[in-house]
Amino acid sequence: MTKPIFPDLPAPVAKKKPVSDTRHGITRTDDYAWLRAPNWQEVFKNPSILAPEIREHLEAENAYQSALMEDTGALRDVLFAEMKRRIKEDDSSVPHKDGPYAYGTSFKVGGEQPRFFRTPRDGGVETMLLDGDLEAEGKAYFRLASTDHSPDHKRLVWGFDDKGSEFYSLKVRDLGTLADLDDLVADTSGGGVWDAAGKGFFYTRLDDNHRPSKLYYHKIGTPQQDDQLIHEEPDPGFFMSVGGSSLDDFIFIAIGDHETSEEWIIPANDPMAKPRLVRKRETGVEYSLTEGGDVFFILTNIDGAKDFKIMSAPVDAPERENWREVVPEKPGTIILSHAAYRDFLVWLERDQGLPRILVRNRKTGEEHAIAFEEEAYSLGLGGSAEYDTDIIRFSYSSMTTPAQEFDYDMRTRERTLLKTQEVPSGHNPQDYVTRRLLAPAPDGELVPVSILYHRDTPLDGSAPCLLYGYGSYGMTIPASFNTTCLSLVDRGFVYAIAHIRGGKDKGFAWYENGKRDKKINTFTDFIAAAEHLVAEKFTSHDRIVAHGGSAGGLLMGAVANMAPQAFGGIIAEVPFVDVLNTILDETLPLTPLEWPEWGNPITSEADYRTIASYCPYSNVGARAYPPILAAAGLTDPRVTYWEPAKWVAKLRELKTDNNPILFRINMDAGHAGASGRFSRLEEVAHNYAFALKVTGKTTAKVASKTVA
Q: What was the pLDDT predicted at 610?
């Protein structure tokens, strides 16, 4: 008789306290709604006030999963050590030049948090501006947000979150004395943008529902209550952000949801000036600005350009009637981002799932591309902090090739390799194979799947597989180098990424056909990827572990209901599994913003029925499920902790098998999990130990070496 994989221990049983809700004549009853704390806004800021009954249940869940995973303790230690050895502990970025200085980040040996430094422009003594480890001392959770130095390089505004709730506080540091001023600005989105004189900065403040709807200006040396309200967005479905131009001439106020945008501008040298509207919002029309001297370059999908085009307008007359096309749309090739410099216009585009950088000489109109030849790779456009330059920076990696950072001369087309990601424990790209497959979906579409495996892994269907997916908001998952997944690949796993609809991997239409009433395509694409991997003998269904987080966790919950037999295990991190209840509740932080993505079930019965048809929590049924590991953070404002807590409770109640459902909740963190670079690896090690456990691959021989 085969020994059970998990010990037979009693799982926590959540109390049932039925709450009914009727919408569009349809009544639903939720037995586990009580797991949502009525004072959830306060809990995000002060987790200690969580109701004892809820806390006791969550702690029981943690104790249960710890007991079921107890026998993987040594394995998790080994995995953590492996992953840590692949990280250069005293790593440092290549500084970006800006005026008289060059700015960069670094880590110290054993350090969890980044440090920010600068040197003289062309090299010299390094000055440590901000030490994240020092700021994090004594805190259970700490995450640094963005930093921004003033145009005169005399001050630094920096943000931090010490709850995991993403309510960031901002401080100002004097870069002469390296001491923080008395200024403290609370409840922000995490960043500040300086005015041209460096006398104050702009920031967005979060309301009680965690929405950035108000733009303020903070003058250095004054209390936050005296900050000037500059602009307010009354529609809770639109969020606001603020940015600056590379010439420090303009402040950009960006307002938008998932399909519509609107921008306002303020002269950076006149922070109290009334914001100027560039183009009034129109549902479905997106645009964003970058400064190009006397013009703005505008990336937009206006006039039906679904894959986007670039237009220009004079900075003194940026309204729509003055927009002129510069780079036309190429259907099927989506423009992702753009940047402008004195003599060049640069944009990053994606064609058939692969990225490339295009450079155009603004005077001659001549264009050329920066591209690579591997089957699957990732390309990042870092650009430059300076406007008057011929040099931009970009990064390249593939699933086998560690990240490389280049300076690129747009005029001479010369590449200068600045840095190659070090893997201290060693890495030979020739030991691994990366492939790009096309999986046929039920409707005939071909779904790209990027895979990585060890050359010695047998491709006879016996190999286990970790299949990752996301598939929402137009997000594209790059086929980039990932040191952590090597711990699975070296144990005989095939590591796969399904580039499913809902992302923009194959253009904007790929996104459109995976949202709202077409959301089902996201799930069937992922199942098709699993079936194709089996058909091509890369793995077998009982050896596939599906993995996704956040909206990718929704994916995990949906495929668990639709095709549980297709997977041997499922890992759902911060999973958005109670989508119907969440999108019906307009008081939750992201709900109004989410309606363009999912539909509005409050006003539309059709949207209600569509979401109800796939909502993981609503569709849990009396069927056999594979082992499932769910993970969450107590102070997560994006996917609230009660979504996976309720899902797990309902799964246990209704499923017909003996496979365990594990729930691991970090009581000191939010959406992104643990905040330190190494503490996050402990969570990855836990996930991987689960994958190895359910596939029976805790020890394997690969490449003539045994790994525990």
A: 98
